[in-house]
Amino acid sequence: MAATILYGTEIAKDIREQLASEVEELKRKGIVPGLTVILVGEDPASHSYVRGKARGCEEVGIRSEILLRDASISEEELLQMIEELNENPNVHGILVQLPLPSHISEKAVIGAIRSEKDVDGFHPVNVGNMMIGYDALLPCTAHGVVEMIRKTGTPMEGKHAVVIGRSNIVGKPVSYLLQRENATVTMCHSRTVNLRHYTRQADILIVAAGRAHMIGSEDVKPGAVVIDVGVNRIESGKLVGDVRFDEVKEVASYLTPVPGGVGPMTITMLLKNTIEAAKNLAAR
Ligand SMILES: NC(=O)C1=CN([C@@H]2O[C@H](COP(=O)(O)OP(=O)(O)OC[C@H]3O[C@@H](n4cnc5c(N)ncnc54)[C@H](OP(=O)(O)O)[C@@H]3O)[C@@H](O)[C@H]2O)C=CC1
Ligand SMILES: Nc1nc(=O)c2c([nH]1)NC[C@@H]1CN(c3ccc(C(=O)N[C@@H](CCC(=O)O)C(=O)O)cc3)C=[N+]21
Ligand SMILES: [Mg+2]
């Protein structure tokens, strides 16, 4: 039986309509949610993602600005910019696009963002609160992944979820949020021996390794929910996931495409966080 394809674009559309009406309501109270994205350097992929974020903001009525800086910017200058945005009452969300040039410390930059404005959910205060289960701005990709699985109606409780990838921006937060849903979670990474041994046991398989087409039908348990987070540009110029879509769609129960799967959900969760940050800051 062929998988149901989970179109992030469609799921995101419903959520964005809801977000647009929340923005309307805030605007009636005189609050215009605002997101500032800092983009350092010329990486074309980063520029493309940031454009997607700005488009999303426009769609739901969030004011957004992109501050472009040359790759030669110093860490000190970047920290100074963040300090000003921390103090600016019209800015509710601050996002510094990663990766940064190697002469700038990601740790210093993320740590400098006021945690209430950290709409990526990458600040140690938000990460810690998420882990403990307290209120926090949640990391967008991980949150988007869990919302997509929820949308399938498949209960996560008691299911074996296998996550490939342990990065701070995707793999680790996905694993925490799935545990919050009472899944049993196994983490795999580049040093995992016999990866297939684990992936074949997964009721829910999250693939976030950044390796084009690494997962095929032999790696997947029949009927599994498969979420492909990978976004890879291959030689032909095509954008592909970490999963061999045409194969895996024949064995999975649900499968996300790339593009049009997790990516649009990531952006939608960023919009949601920006609105939440605006509400929280206004209530202080
Ligand atoms: N759709 C979206 O919204 C988003 C998509 N992405 C995409 O998701 C992918 C992952 O991103 P990110 O987490 O930042 O990437 P990182 O490179 O930071 O992390 C990759 C992780 O995958 C593991 N890994 C790499 N190769 C293998 C392998 N052959 N077998 C098993 N594990 C492996 C690494 O292991 P180790 O720790 O041992 O090195 C690491 O933990 C990328 O394609 C990225 O473009 C990212 C963010 C958002
Ligand atoms: N501070 C920070 N926050 C991030 O959230 C962040 C980051 N840095 N650095 C890079 C990764 C990557 N990422 C993506 C978001 C959306 C798509 C997305 O919407 N992709 C579209 C296709 C986009 C295209 O066509 O290029 C899709 O999958 O349909 C992809 C990747 C966010 N990241
Ligand atoms: Mg990374």
Q: What is the total domain count?
A: 2
> What is the number of helical segments per DSSP (H or I, 4+ residues)?
10
CATH topology of the largest domain: Rossmann fold
Q: Strand-and-helix sequence, N→C?
A: EHEHEHEHHHEHEHEEEEHEH
Total number of strands: 11
Helical fraction equals 40-55%
Keywords:
284 residues; alpha/beta; Rossmann fold; three-stranded parallel β-sheet; binds NADPH dihydro-nicotinamide-adenine-dinucleotide phosphate; binds 5,10-Methenyltetrahydrofolate; binds magnesium ion
Describe the model.
By secondary structure, this protein is an alpha/beta fold. It has 2 domains: 31-114, Leucine Dehydrogenase, chain A, domain 1 (Rossmann fold, 3-Layer(aba) Sandwich), CATH 3.40.50; 140-263, NAD(P)-binding Rossmann-like Domain (Rossmann fold), CATH 3.40.50. 42% of the residues lie in helices and 15% in strands. It contains 10 helices and 11 strands. It has a 6-stranded parallel β-sheet. α7 (171-180) links the parallel β5 and β6. The longest helix is centred in the first third of the chain and has 21 residues, at 8-28. The termini are far apart. The mean pLDDT is 97. NADPH dihydro-nicotinamide-adenine-dinucleotide phosphate (NDP) is lined by residues 141, 164-167, 169-171, 188-192, 195, 208-211, 214, 229-232, 262-263, 266.
